[in-house]
Write a structure and sequence with these properties.
This protein is an alpha/beta fold. Helix content is 36%, strand content 13%. It has a single domain (3-295), classed as NADP-dependent oxidoreductase domain (TIM Barrel, Alpha-Beta Barrel). The chain has an eight-stranded parallel beta barrel with strand order 1-2-3-4-5-6-7-8, surrounded by four helices.
Length: 302
């Protein structure tokens, strides 16, 4: 039996692929990764039972890069996102074009089926064509082109709006040691009770949470005291920033996948080692209330 057909216990970690297709990350000096680097990361991931990859039509040529880099014996579960309205002009944003763009995604990924398909921009579900967009998701699922459907959200209000109107399988949301809003307000546990998978993104806040204090962009100066508190917390508990950020997320039984972005297989190995460390610590004091610094859409970086 080929190795990729063997039932394996998958890791909670998932590979984020934004930097496979474009220059991504507030603290990423390397920029877009080469095909060789992507292949090395994917080999390390698959060999380590990390079986989920997160991508999107809006991530530059990430889908195409994955289609070229994934080997035939690497049975990854791929989650991608439909092209958001921002990728179209106002006149060209219609269901037919969005459906065609998804078919292009499948061709670029070199897959006839994917594990999950998400709405990239939650607001698109509440536009004039929102009902048609949801119907498209259901139709693609019915056709067997995707096993699960869902949405990427930013705010607790998004979760509540979606749950009131749509039946979905996956919600992707920003959660990290500094941004604990969805845990503290009970939204995360509510999703679990409904049987909805939670995929956590922004685990490192685009690298801000792992950066030395002197390398943090000046935009974040107002919250430096809280970031320094995180550094001191790690020192007091004799753990690394990486162990703290991943340990916090791993501790939550309500998080199914932790999406991480890495620049190479060595960084991935560091994440694997850090995530394997079972921590039992109270991280609640490290929550930052200033939402403008937790949402990259608000950032002004020079």
């Amino acid at each position: 039996m080929p190795a990729y057909e063997v039932k394996r216990s998958s890791s909670k970690l998932a590979i984020g692929s934004a930097n496979f297709g474009m220059d991504y990350g507030a603290t990423n000096p390397q920029g877009q990764l080469s095909n060789q680097s992507i292949q090395t990361i994917l080999k390390k991931a698959f060999d380590s039972n990390i079986t989920t990859i997160d991508t999107a039509a809006a991530y530059g040529n990430s889908e195409e890069a994955l289609g070229k880099a994934i080997k035939a014996d690497q049975d990854f579960q791929i989650i991608t996102k439909l092209a958001p309205s921002q990728m179209f002009t106002e006149k060209s944003f219609d269901i037919g074009r969005i459906s065609n763009r998804f078919q292009a995604s499948l061709r670029q990924l070199n897959h006839s089926h994917i594990d999950g398909l998400l709405i990239h921009n939650c607001n698109d579900l509440f536009s004039d064509q929102g009902d048609q967009l949801y119907a498209l998701l259901l139709n693609l699922k019915q056709q067997g082109l995707t096993s699960k459907i869902g949405v990427s959200i930013y705010e607790a209000e998004d979760i509540q709006r979606v749950n009131e109107h749509f039946d979905i399988d996956i919600i992707q949301a920003p959660i990290n040691i500094a941004d604990q809003r969805l845990i503290l307000d009970g939204n995360l546990s509510a999703l679990t009770k409904k049987g909805i998978e939670v995929h956590c993104r922004s685990a490192f806040l685009q690298g801000i949470l792992l950066s030395p204090i002197e390398r943090i962009p000046t935009y974040f100066t107002p919250i430096l005291p809280q970031i320094k508190k995180l550094h001191q917390f790690c020192k007091n508990n004799q753990i690394s920033l990486l162990e703290a950020t991943l340990g916090f997320l791993k501790q939550s039984a309500d998080i199914d996948k932790i999406i991480i972005g890495v620049n190479g297989s060595e960084q991935l190995q560091d994440c694997i080692a850090a995530e394997s460390n079972d921590l039992s610590l109270d991280f609640s004091s490290l929550h930052i209330n200033e939402s403008s610094y937790l949402d990259p859409r608000n950032w002004t970086l020079s």
